[in-house]
Write a structure and sequence with these properties.
- The protein is 53% helix and 11% strand.
- It contains eleven helices and six strands.
- A four-stranded mixed sheet has the order 1-3-2-4, with helices on one face. Strands 5-6 form a two-stranded antiparallel ribbon.
- Helix 2 packs parallel to helix 4, helix 4 crosses helix 7 and helix 9 crosses helix 10.
């Protein structure tokens, strides 16, 4: 599997956004229309369809490369409608799989994909509520076999890192994040929530993105916000 450095992913995303601007024939506006981006730039379609889940597994979406199709899990539609930022990041995640890891030259080879069970890169995430489920599964051999299946279907750490970075870079372009972050009070949550709303992402995704550029530091113990890691360390030295 190809390994991407973070800077490579940022550059790929910037090229794709430039292509998007060219096709739109106007400057980018925010939040980025991620579905239109997928259609115009990547040639991907999108639909809602039920995706089977193993007990203890959460599947938000999958990619069918040979169909050039992103499948959003109908089972999770209600919760994603309530959290559009999560839905948009999920869609960007699947687009990252397509753009970074799918070998387009092999898509039309008849033996590449099993038509009875098409290859699906699925976005999976665990929530705090699933911890007890995992503990329960570990208590039996059948449960441990289910966990092994879940792990086998999940992204590798490098792949997950790459596609998550790609989704963030598309929805929150670094030059815009840097510029907009410097216009707000980064030490108050209200300003951060407003910026997250502008980009159409979750507050946790914005926080990670800003931390990537040292525009934010959150003291986990006190939930205090600092405008940079250096500022946080400086404040600690004062006390």
């Amino acid at each position: 599997m190809t390994f991407y450095r973070n800077e490579q992913i940022e550059q790929i995303a910037e090229r794709r956004l430039f292509e998007f601007e060219q096709k739109l024939e106007r400057p980018l506006s925010f939040p980025i229309d991620i579905e239109l981006f997928g259609d115009l730039v990547l040639g991907l379609s999108m639909l809602w369809e039920e995706i089977d889940e193993i007990a203890g597994e959460e599947v938000l979406a999958g990619l069918r490369p040979h169909d050039r199709l992103i499948i959003m899990n109908e089972r999770r539609k209600k919760e994603m409608e309530q959290k559009p930022g999560r839905r948009r990041l999920t869609q960007g995640h699947e687009m990252g799989h397509w753009d970074l890891f799918v070998d387009k030259s092999k898509l039309d080879h008849p033996d590449l994909f099993d038509t009875a069970a098409p290859d699906v890169f699925a976005y999976r995430s665990s929530s705090g509520g699933q911890v007890q489920i995992i503990k329960t599964l570990l208590a039996s051999e059948q449960g441990r076999d289910i966990l092994r299946q879940i792990n086998a279907r999940a992204d590798t750490p490098d792949e997950a890192r790459s596609v998550n970075r790609y989704a963030a870079a598309i929805l929150m372009p670094r030059n815009v994040v840097i510029a907009e972050s410097q216009k707000i009070n980064r030490t108050e949550w209200k300003s951060l929530y407003s910026l997250a709303e502008r980009f159409g992402v979750t507050i946790s995704a914005l926080r990670v993105r800003m931390e990537q550029f040292n525009l934010l530091y959150v003291d986990q113990a006190t939930n205090t916000l600092y405008s940079s890691r250096e500022e946080a360390l400086g404040q600690r030295r004062l006390f």
